[in-house]
Specification:
Blueprint lengths: L1 E13 L5 H6 L1 E12 L1 H6 L8 H14 L5 H15 L3 E10 L11 E8 L2
Length: about 120
């Protein structure tokens, strides 16, 4: 039985961007993560050991966004997917959306986002 675990609208403060002020001042980043995995064993056992501990995944995403520094959202999204897949062998596919709501573009804008996914080889 396949299932999806979703962590929606995780909010972190980081220092990512191509512009110098983004690296100096920082800003909020919003992250949605979807993990696809076989949930049959967890459904039967009712045990955390048979699934993904989303508290661990939240902490991993927080570490990546708050401690690392990259210029591009594409790089940040790729780093999140790589580290989540490395930490969670049960996950067969991971999808992420990283939103940057305070982009300094000189006009009104809700956010800029990157959406991407990776499947375990």
């Amino acid at each position: 039985m396949t299932g999806k675990i979703r962590l929606k609208n995780m909010a972190f403060y980081g220092y990512h961007g191509a512009l110098p002020e983004e690296n100096t001042l920082g800003q909020r980043f919003l992250v949605d993560l979807t993990l696809t995995l076989d949930i049959a064993a967890a459904a039967r056992s009712d045990s955390l050991r048979d699934t993904v501990d989303y508290a661990q995944i939240y902490a991993l995403c927080r570490k990546i966004v708050e401690q690392d520094r990259v210029k591009l959202l594409e790089t940040l999204a790729n780093d999140i997917l790589d580290q989540v897949l490395a930490a969670c062998p049960r996950v067969t596919e991971a999808s992420v959306i990283v939103r940057k709501p305070s982009v300094p573009l000189g006009g009104p804008l809700d956010y800029v986002a990157i959406e991407t996914s990776k499947t375990r080889p």
